[in-house]
């Protein structure tokens, strides 16, 4: 051994060399560092990232900065750099094996003690580094110092030259011995292989980790050394002569390289099999095949090295070796071909494993020689082998399950994205799937996710197929798609990329194979699932290939089906498929008229059947399945079409005129909703096209607006022709129409500048039909008008035609909608709760919205402003809001000054009302429901009271008379012996004060009909006073009797006097007349009523004295009933006191006159009661009685004269008792009487 030292170096240079030596680490496998630093895929020390592989392949010095000194240290000894390997080859490899033994012993000594573990890590790392450095030295020595042997002329060689000449052979032997020594990777103890699972972030590794990675280093470096040796020997075969002589077996550098490559690939595949055991089919693409990144790097190194050598025809390419190894999994090798150690590999599903490993290995081709990702790098394909795999996967006898087939096709799709395209793949797959179109391709353990989905709509069918034609996350397809859809994805990718890359249209190459599988018998064998798969295939082809050619062929193929054998669900699916093709046409801006007419004709026939089918429920359901499919499909076409310029109107034929009358409930709702969607879409598209907002500015679009407008007119015409007649007929149906009817009618009517030329029916006519017609259901009217009122274009339309009554007629409809809010409620006992529940929730919400919008009309806003009504009015309950509006109109009228203004206002208010009695006639006819009667009498009562000045005019009096005749004095009321319904009586009782107060005002105002109006008022009081008068006065409470409420409310003096006078007149004439001496019925209640009026009004009027007092005084004389006497006495007291409090002599004079007549009428017979009554009055008003003394005295004398018995002592005593209350005048009269006696 040469121990020469290197030449003298300066200190500074020595320091620099030390630094360089410290920093110069030989490449090795390392997964200990963070691989993400600097964006690298592998560690900086790796064979790839360090450039080691690249230098070897480019025939550059493997380590240009190393081994530059004369002496190199290896295994603790100094060696001459240029001669060590030639002189001591066996010794050095022996020392290398000793170090491996040392590391293996350290593995046995491994401890869990952390301090000991750190020491073991350091020692094991040192051993591994020595072993790696030695093998790198061998590689450098071969590159720098080994020369091919040159025989001198005499054939004699220098001893060193002899050693040098024998070195290649010795190296082959030693490398063979080294591979034998370390054995197979997969044969390492499980405790060592377990080191693959150690976390890369660890800082301290056990000896097993170092030993495992040293094995990887040795396996790779042996290949590198053999490659460098072969390059150095000018690709001459190196024979291991000594080994051959000893064993007789052939061993060369090439055979060793190939054997070691085969063994290494077998070992790596064995490791992958162990990893695949834990991989689910659904996770195959996301689960990598290597236990750590070092194994991944080793795979990449093999790919780079083997494919590089293959270019020089040295060895087989990478895929060839892998394929050969994988074939041994399928076929157990014979003894002569047995691969050492490989027979121990067990794989339960070799086919799936092969797909998995091939796919992951293919992805490694995207790494370059430096370990960087290079997606543009040319990738070697392995299609021939994959074709064989695909044949095995689709072999019917092999019986590959769907759960595995999905994974196989996922792998195939991934390979299609990595390698160049191969149409043979499509052919193999189509041969399989064409025979299995009726299969569901489900995976049982996936549950519902794995079930075959029959698409519910044409759009969902198309979207599902379109997903096959675009870039997808292939790992997700396992659960989201079945194997058939993955096949379609493969086919779509082939079709698109082949055409894009080579310009060749692959469709022409494969369409014959596809079409040939569909003959009459095959088409008739298709189940519903088969038809779905059939459409999925051709929809995908229509997207990526010749659309019209494919659709035409599909229609021809579908004609092969026997119509009688097609089930309803199959026919619905066929229709959905047709519409899916239509959607493709639309997306490609192709005219749809031919296909649309075919579909719409079929729809017409089914709609006709639906119309004539009456009692067969099952048949109707089956037909509706088809019809609803058509409706959904047409809607999707309209929603998808960008310009509605592709003959979409062909889909809207007269089938709808037959369908609509036969629809009920949910069916009608669906059709009307469809119509609304189509209308909205038409308006939107027409507006956009009219405004020139087409996407893009291509020249081909220059003529688009004109062409589109023609189609839009055709669509609008079809809608009006086929839908409007039904809407018009339904507005007066027997049952309340659905809200959608109003929504749809409004959608047809809402004017728009963009659609003014599409509106065949004038706006005014539509409003008269749906908004202002008194015969239309209020539910429809309120919802219809709510849509239209808020549309500003509506006002513009009516203004432009000079129609001024638009707002007034709309207010009239609002009146009617509120008055008729209970029109469809039952009249039974449960009506109230049912009405509250239904009306309050649905119709009341609609009325509230309508009220809000009505109060935004300009006319209404003006009235509210004049009446100083707050903005919050419209937020109230609609009934209350209506009353507030009625009040506001009354106040606004009262504020007018000139006659023309008032006359115009009267006309406008009558226009607001319309035939109001017609609105409430249904309630009056059936005497219910109670809520309806209450609302009717209350609202119209408010009209009579608050619009009294208006109703007093000659224009409005006829309406007033009709109100009285219909509501207050109908024929049933005039029949006194007939009892009125309780609900009607209750409604009248609550609202009667409003009518009485309004009528009394009108009586005061009317110039021409005063007498008749007074008569009407009296008739009303006469009819209802007795009806609401209780049998006993105890039941008469405050506010119970409606006339009491009317008389005691705050109204103007003339109005109050008129009502009071008329009421008391009626009471006097009808309820206080004695029959002889017999009192009238319910006299006490009548007196109680009068007393209540006096008490609550706190006043005595002249009419009270004239009309009531004589009868009350008569009651005091003739009736002994205590209640009558009490009430009569109280009334007299109130009147006398009222006259004292009142101003003017008229009441006092009239009072005196009444009492004078009372004395004259009853003194003769009822002298004691007369004097008793006068005594009571004397206490209250002594002057009044004093003024009556002459009358009393004269009556006394007349009585005595009439009796002819002389002076009546008893009468005179009673009279004197009365006179004793009258102070001096009384005493004087007593003295006169006594003087007469004397």
Strand order of the biggest β-sheet: 1-2
Largest pleated sheet: 2 strands, antiparallel
Shape, per Cα inertia axes:
elongated
Instruction: Report, as a whole number of angstroms, the end-to-end distance.
Output: 192 Å
Q: How large is the count of helical segments? A: 56
How many beta-strand elements?
2
Give average pLDDT, whole number: 86
Q: What percentage of the residues does DSSP assign to strands (E)?
A: under 5%
The percent of residues in helical segments reads 55-70%
Q: Which structural class matches the secondary elements? A: mainly alpha
Instruction: Give unreliable regions as ranges.
Output: 1-23, 34-38, 333-342, 697-702
Radius of gyration: 57 Å
Domain MMS22-like C-terminal: 845-1222
Protein name: Protein MMS22-like
Family: Belongs to the MMS22 family. MMS22L subfamily.
Organism: Grus japonensis
